[in-house]
# Entry
Amino acid sequence: IDSAMTESERRDVFTRLRAREIKILYVSPERLVMPAFLDFVKSLGISSLAIDEAHCVSMWGHDFRPEYRQLGLLRDAFPGIPIGAYTATATERVRADVCTQLKLRDPLVLVGRFDRPNLVFRLEQRHNLLTQVRHVLDRHKGESGIIYCIRRSDVDDLCSQLNRSGYRTVPYHAGMEDSDRKRSQEAFVAEGVDIVVATVAFGMGIDKSNVRFVVHSGMPKSIEHYQQETGRAGRDGLGAECILFFAPGDYHTWKFILEKSENSQGLDIHLRKLSEVYSFCTSYRCRHRAISRYFGQNMDRPNCMACDVCLADLQPIAEPLVVAQKILSSVVRQGEAYGADYTTAVLTGAKDQRILQKGHDQLSTYGLLADMPKHEVRDLIEQLVSLGALARTEDHRVLRVTPKARLILKGEETPTLMRVAKKTPVRIAEEDASWQDVDRDLFEELRRWRLVQSAVRKVPAYVIFSDMTLRELARWKPVERPSLEQISGVGRKKTLEYGAGILNLIREYAQRHEIQVRAGWAGPGPPSARSSPRRRKRGR
# Structure
């Protein structure tokens, strides 16, 4: 039951509920706690309750909603039935608060691994968003992806720019008509387009398994949001890439939005989370390890080999001590009264009117880093903040030196400062392995076949076959039904439904490319001769 239904549709649901024809009922928290509706639910004799997105119950959660807080009355209303609470993004503190607020009695708490080793995390300072995003899209031609933006206007602008550049994209945000949002979502799920450009409003209820990349065009407002949004990539277990383009100004953008929308208590919690994600963006530590630690878990692997830090997308700068001393000296000579943007302008020798008026073009540090791009200097300042050599005032606008900075200025401590390596980002070994021996041309033909089937049957493409199954088909090339049934993700039922079309496609492909067919296979041999696909167990 939801607000988009007509009155007659709602009446029909109530009639079917009274007739005991409905086994599972989905409702919003707002509706469930309405006294009249709650009394009606009590009369149905329900057997269990499941609360999704349970982090919304806790004021410490990243999406606290007051109406979720009222769900605590369910324990009293239904004292004898089990209650389950589910979320993918709850810290230890949030988990404990959820149990308390829902009045759960000695609950069984199951916590899975927060680490997603098949995801590659990359973070870059944003300096030319359109160019940076296009580089990502060109690495993932023809693949499904999501681009998240902070504001609705950013969605519309970026979507228009990408469409003009020849990419197949649709927008999605809360400012669109319901029908337009639905069209965008359906086009993306059915693979009528490759990319959806969206605000965080997109993704709830989406379980598209073959999203190969997620781009954030700006900093998310919490690590929980980042975990949830990047978690929409690679759900089929294959490799996927998550790229975050951020700028220091994102902190102030979010702060402005939060100050307009949150009460004082909620604001303090959200600003703390904002500082945590800002620190995550500006530090150069293993991304997988940082996320795992945030959620209270340790990572077993010493090197994730799946983030920009561990993949050596970054490299140490030359003469880090000298560069750090120049930056710190400039902050001191400016009287510790200015922020990072102003300090960057001084160090790069900008002809800024404010600099000239203050006479800071006469400082000995003016133009000392003029040979470096401005965004690199800005990034180095953020690294010194992350390392504890610089600190910000409470409003996040003014830089101050710390005792650690004094050690660096005296030459008694050398910081490690990094820059982006001048190379094309590599894909993780796990992702490369998933393509081993896969005939990519055949894979693309199978994808096109799947898209046609999706349109004919009016179901999402990934429901027909996952990308992983298509890769297995393009690897082993079965040409007979018994061979096809051995492929992971196929089995007898799908062989009966789709077998004729797939087998004809593979046979014709093998004939065109003069690939030898033997013993039911048009490839390197049956799966059992190499790394065999998993066989389905058949029940008696």
Remarks:
- Confidence is low (pLDDT under 50) at residues 529-540.
- The longest strand covers residues 119-125.
- The domain at 318-416 is CATH 1.10.10.10 (Arc Repressor Mutant, subunit A).
